[in-house]
Design a protein that fits this description.
CATH superfamily: Aldolase class I
Helix content: 25-40%
Shape: globular
Largest sheet: 10 strands, mixed
Strand content: 15-25%
Radius of gyration: 20 Å
CATH topology: TIM Barrel
CATH class: Alpha Beta
Order of helices and strands: HEEEHEHEEEHEHEHHEHEHHEH
Structural class: alpha/beta
CATH architecture: Alpha-Beta Barrel
Number of helices: 11
Distance between the termini: 41 Å
Length: 323
């Protein structure tokens, strides 16, 4: 067989050649680190199902954001744990709400970091659903009013990007209109355009104390069996003024990421969610997998599917390896 002309292994002989011809590349610039901010001072409470992630008071959050910036991570997304919850999630849109306070602190103390504000109500409501409850269901249109108020409060606090994640019908249009009316036309919207009703969110609900107190979220988050519906959801958000799109979760929905990438030319994010992180972390701790290798493989798969940016709890670990 010495006369073989085509030998693909030639380009896999050593790391130098493999790196030279590599098609998909990760960079800390493409990674977004999620943080959970809570009231208090000096609070650094590890999340049991998400080792290495914490509920952080604002002073501790600022330290963490400084640390990720030093690793080359330029973007963070914030989720809030309010001091008190109520039926309509008032802390989400209060001027002194926990996330608004955190945004101001980061912009003041860590210039140059892009702060993305998750826009939803589930962490702030005492029932754990993403909006106003009427007849044991989320009432869509009154919820839009609260999401719009939240977006304006986040923009006023200095958020660089608003990221609505609630999956209400018309949520992008409502937020885009509210931001425009308040003079924040320049603030981009990163829409959670395709958010599935997924079992992979479990650890997040521990972290954010946001599990529904009754029922579930299947009446507003997407059915995992559907992909054509995902494209329709994304198209609606594009028409309503979204600047970026997101698919969530990531790895179980790589086909959806690819389908959205091929249909739309907006920047595309994918969220490697808490359950994806927890499974890799747990298997690594048990010695069943090579955790760093699987972590990087998972991130490459998401990027290869078409994501321009990845929200991941592995952002810091991956950036250390990329360095």
């Amino acid at each position: 067989m010495a006369d073989l002309i085509h030998r693909p292994r030639r380009l896999r002989r050593n790391e130098g050649i493999r790196s030279l011809v590599r098609e998909t590349r990760l960079s800390p610039d493409n990674l977004i680190m999620p943080f959970f901010v809570c009231p208090g001072e000096g609070v650094r409470r590890e999340i049991g199902s998400m080792p290495g992630n914490f509920n952080l008071s604002i002073d501790e959050l600022v330290k963490e954001v400084k640390s990720v910036k030093e690793l080359g991570i330029r973007s963070v997304i914030l989720f809030g744990l309010p001091s008190a919850k109520d039926p309509v999630g008032k802390d989400a849109y209060a001027e002194d709400g926990i996330v608004q306070q955190a945004i101001r602190a980061i912009k003041r103390e860590v210039p140059g970091v892009i702060v993305i504000a998750d826009n939803c109500l589930c962490e702030y409501t005492d029932h754990g659903h993403c909006g106003v409850i009427r007849d044991n269901d989320v009432d869509n249109d009154p919820t839009l009013e609260l999401l719009s108020k939240t977006a304006v409060a986040q923009a006023e606090a200095g958020a660089d990007i608003v990221a609505p994640s609630n999956m209400m019908d018309g949520f992008v249009r409502a937020i885009r209109t509210a931001l425009g009316n308040a003079g924040y036309q320049q603030v981009p919207i990163m829409s959670y355009a395709v958010k599935y009703a997924s079992g992979f969110y479990g650890p997040f609900r521990e972290a954010a104390d946001s599990a529904p107190q009754f029922g579930d979220r299947r009446s507003y988050q997407m059915d995992p069996a559907n992909v054509r519906e995902a494209l329709r959801e994304a198209e609606l958000d594009v028409d309503e003024g979204a600047d970026m799109l997101m698919v969530k979760p990531a790895m179980p929905y790589l086909d959806v990421i690819r389908a959205v990438r091929e249909r739309f030319n907006l920047p595309l994010a994918a969220y490697q969610v808490s359950g994806e992180f927890a499974m890799i972390k747990a298997a690594g701790r048990l010695g069943w997998i090579d955790e760093p290798r699987v972590m990087m493989e998972s991130l490459v798969s998401i990027k290869r599917a078409g994501a321009d940016m990845i929200l991941t709890y592995f952002a810091q670990d991956a950036s250390r390896l990329l360095a």
